[in-house]
UniProtKB/TrEMBL annotation, chain A:
Its main location: membrane. It is found in: Cell membrane. InterPro entries: ABC_perm_TupB-like, MetI-like, MetI-like_sf. GO terms for cellular component: plasma membrane. Belongs to the binding-protein-dependent transport system permease family. Pfam families: BPD_transp_1 (PF00528). This is ABC transporter permease subunit. It comes from the Bacteria. GO terms for biological process: transmembrane transport. The chain crosses the membrane at residues 33-54, 61-85, 97-118, 154-181, 201-222. It is a multi-pass membrane protein. It comes from Kangsaoukella pontilimi.
UniProtKB/TrEMBL annotation, chain B:
Keywords: ATP-binding, Nucleotide-binding, Transport. It comes from Kangsaoukella pontilimi. This is ATP-binding cassette domain-containing protein. Residues 21-244 form the ABC transporter domain. Signal peptide: none annotated. InterPro entries: AAA+_ATPase, ABC_transporter-like_ATP-bd, ABC_transporter-like_CS, P-loop_NTPase. The keyword Secreted does not apply. It comes from the Bacteria. Gene3D superfamilies: P-loop containing nucleotide triphosphate hydrolases. GO terms for molecular function: ATP binding; ATP hydrolysis activity. The keyword Signal does not apply. Pfam families: ABC_tran (PF00005).
Length: 235, 250
C-alpha cells in the first residue's frame, strides 16, 4: 500500500500530465453540473421570486416544502429518476437512462429546491426593503420583479454557485441514473468511488484534488463577488 | 364635499378645499391601537402645506393614508373627486424620511424611475440631477453618497415621476443645516412650478420657512389648520399653542 504522500504526488503528476481519461471525466462532470445548475436556476429563480413577492393561500406551506426539499437525499432522487426513466417507467420510451441527460435531470431535481429556497430568502429581504418605495412609485409586478432580480444579482449568483457546488460534489444520484459507464457517464465523484474500490488510489486522489480545487475556485468566486458588491455598495 | 375656503395659493388667493385633499372621519388602527382617530381635514391643491405635530401625532400615517400606501379602517380620503388609490398615486411622489436607494449608480436610480414612466432620456436625467445639485455624481454608487446627497437623489427620483403632488415625510430629520437648506430650496422651486407640496416636519423653524398653510395634528386628530401666518401668530388650539411655545404635549 502506497503512503499518503506518495499517492498525493502521483495524483499531482496525473493532474499536471493532462491525462486524457482524467480530462474526459472532469469535462463531463463540469458539463453535467453546469447544465443542471442552469436548468435549476431557470426553475428555481422564478419559483423563489414568486414565493418572495406573491401572497397566496398555501404560501407558507409552499415555503416549508421548498425548504424541506433542500435536504433531498441524492440516492432517493436517483431512485425516483431511475424508476421514471427505466424501460418499465413512464418515461422509459425516451431511452435516457444511463446517459448524461439522465444525470442532468437528477442533479437538476436535487439543486432546484436549493436555488428556489435561497433565492426566495434573498429576494424576500430585498423586497421588504424596497416594497414601500416600489408601491409609492406604482410599479407593476413585472417591474418590481425585474428590479429585485437585478439588484439582487450578486447574491443570486452566489445562490447559483452554491447549487453548482452541491451538484458537482454529488455521487448517489448520478451513480444510479448514470451507471458510471466508462467514456459515457463517468464523472469525478463516481470515478473516485470506483477507483478507490479498485485500489487505484492515485487516480482517485487526483480526481479528489481537482474536486477540491473546484470547491476552492467556487468559494473564491463567491468571495470575490461579495467584495465587488461591497466595493460598488451593492451589498 | 365641503367647499369652505381653508387655504391660499402661492399667489395669495383663497383656495377651496374641494379641489385638494380631504379626510373625512378617517380612522386607522394597528393591533387594536387607534392611531388615527376620526381625522377630518382639508388641504388646498396649491402651495406648500406643512403638517406638524409632536411625535406620535400621526403625521407619517397621515401621509401614507393620503398616498394610499396604507388604507383607512373607516372614513373617506379623496383627492378632488377621486378616492385615494393606484391611479391617484401615480400622480404623486413620496419622499421618505430614510431614502431607500437601489443598489445602482446615481444615474441608474433616476433612469429606473424615468423608464418605469416610459420617458427615459439622458437629457431628462441630467436636468433632474442638475435641479437637485447632483451634477457630476451620475456614475457614483448611490449608497456611497452622504445622507444629504442621498436625500437629494431621492428628490430627483420623486421629481422624475413628474408628480402633481409631492409628499415629503420629514426629509431633513437627520440632515445637517447645509443639506436641509438644499432640500428646502428644491421644495420651494418645486412648489413655484405648480406642484402641490405636503411637507411633514416637527421643526417649527422649518415650518415657518416653508409653509403656506399648516395642518396641526395631535393624538391622531387634526386639531387645527389654516394659513401659516395666522397659525404661527395666533394658534387657536391649546395643543398648537403649547407646541409652538416648546412645551411638551402629553
Amino acid at each position: 500500500m502506497q503512503g499518503f504522500g506518495e499517492i498525493l504526488a502521483l495524483a499531482f503528476d496525473l493532474v499536471l500530465s493532462g491525462d486524457g481519461d482524467l480530462a474526459e471525466i472532469v469535462w463531463l462532470s463540469l458539463r453535467v453540473s453546469i447544465s443542471a445548475t442552469l436548468l435549476a436556476c431557470l426553475i428555481g429563480l422564478p419559483l423563489g421570486a414568486v414565493l418572495a413577492i406573491a401572497r397566496f393561500p398555501g404560501r407558507n406551506a409552499a415555503i416549508v416544502l421548498v425548504n424541506a426539499l433542500m435536504g433531498l437525499p441524492p440516492v432517493v432522487v436517483g431512485l425516483l429518476v431511475y424508476l421514471h426513466l427505466s424501460r418499465a417507467g413512464p418515461l422509459g420510451f425516451l431511452g435516457l437512462l444511463y446517459t448524461p441527460t439522465a444525470m442532468i435531470i437528477a442533479q437538476t431535481i436535487l439543486i432546484a429546491p436549493i436555488v428556489a429556497a435561497l433565492s426566495r430568502q434573498v429576494l424576500e429581504e430585498l423586497h421588504a426593503e424596497y416594497a414601500e418605495t416600489f408601491r409609492s412609485l406604482a410599479l407593476s409586478g413585472r417591474q418590481t420583479l425585474a428590479a429585485l432580480l437585478w439588484d439582487g444579482r450578486f447574491a443570486l449568483v452566489t445562490v447559483a454557485l452554491a447549487g453548482f457546488g452541491r451538484a458537482v460534489a454529488e455521487v448517489g444520484a448520478v451513480m444510479i441514473v448514470g451507471g458510471n459507464i466508462d467514456h459515457a457517464t463517468r464523472v469525478m465523484t463516481t470515478a473516485i468511488a470506483l477507483e478507490t474500490s479498485r485500489g487505484n488510489l492515485a487516480l482517485a486522489m487526483a480526481l479528489g484534488v481537482i474536486l477540491m480545487m473546484l470547491a476552492l475556485g467556487v468559494n473564491a468566486a463567491v468571495h470575490s463577488l461579495r467584495l465587488t458588491a461591497t466595493r460598488w455598495s451593492h451589498a | 364635499m365641503r367647499e369652505a375656503v381653508i387655504g391660499r395659493s402661492l399667489e395669495g388667493e383663497a383656495v377651496s378645499a374641494g379641489a385638494g385633499l380631504s379626510f373625512r372621519d378617517v380612522g386607522y388602527s394597528i393591533a387594536g391601537r387607534r392611531l388615527i382617530d376620526g381625522m377630518t381635514v382639508d388641504v388646498p391643491d396649491r402651495g406648500v402645506t406643512v403638517v406638524m405635530g409632536p411625535n406620535g401625532a400621526g403625521k407619517s400615517l397621515f401621509l401614507r393614508l393620503a398616498h394610499g400606501l396604507i388604507h383607512a379602517d373607516e372614513g373617506a380620503i379623496r383627492w378632488g373627486d377621486a378616492p385615494v388609490g393606484r391611479s391617484v398615486a401615480r400622480d404623486q411622489a413620496l419622499v421618505f424620511q430614510t431614502p431607500v436607494l437601489l443598489r445602482r449608480s446615481v444615474a441608474a436610480n433616476v433612469d429606473f424611475v424615468l423608464k418605469s414612466r416610459g420617458r427615459a432620456s439622458v437629457e431628462m436625467r441630467e436636468t433632474l440631477l442638475r435641479r437637485v445639485g447632483l451634477t457630476g455624481f451620475a456614475r457614483v454608487a448611490a449608497r456611497r453618497l452622504s445622507g444629504g446627497e442621498q436625500q437629494r437623489l431621492q428628490m430627483a427620483r420623486a421629481l422624475a415621476t413628474e408628480p402633481r403632488v409631492l409628499l415629503l415625510d420629514e426629509p431633513t430629520a437627520s440632515l445637517d443645516p447645509a443639506s436641509t437648506a438644499a432640500i428646502e430650496l428644491i421644495v420651494r422651486d418645486v412648489a413655484l412650478r405648480g406642484v402641490k407640496v405636503i411637507f411633514v416636519t416637527h421643526d417649527v423653524g422649518q415650518a415657518r420657512r416653508l409653509a403656506d398653510d399648516v395642518v396641526f395634528l395631535a393624538n391622531g386628530r387634526a386639531v387645527e389648520q389654516g394659513a401659516a401666518e395666522r397659525f404661527f401668530d395666533a394658534p387657536r388650539s391649546p395643543e398648537a399653542d403649547a407646541y409652538l411655545q416648546g412645551k411638551l404635549i402629553l
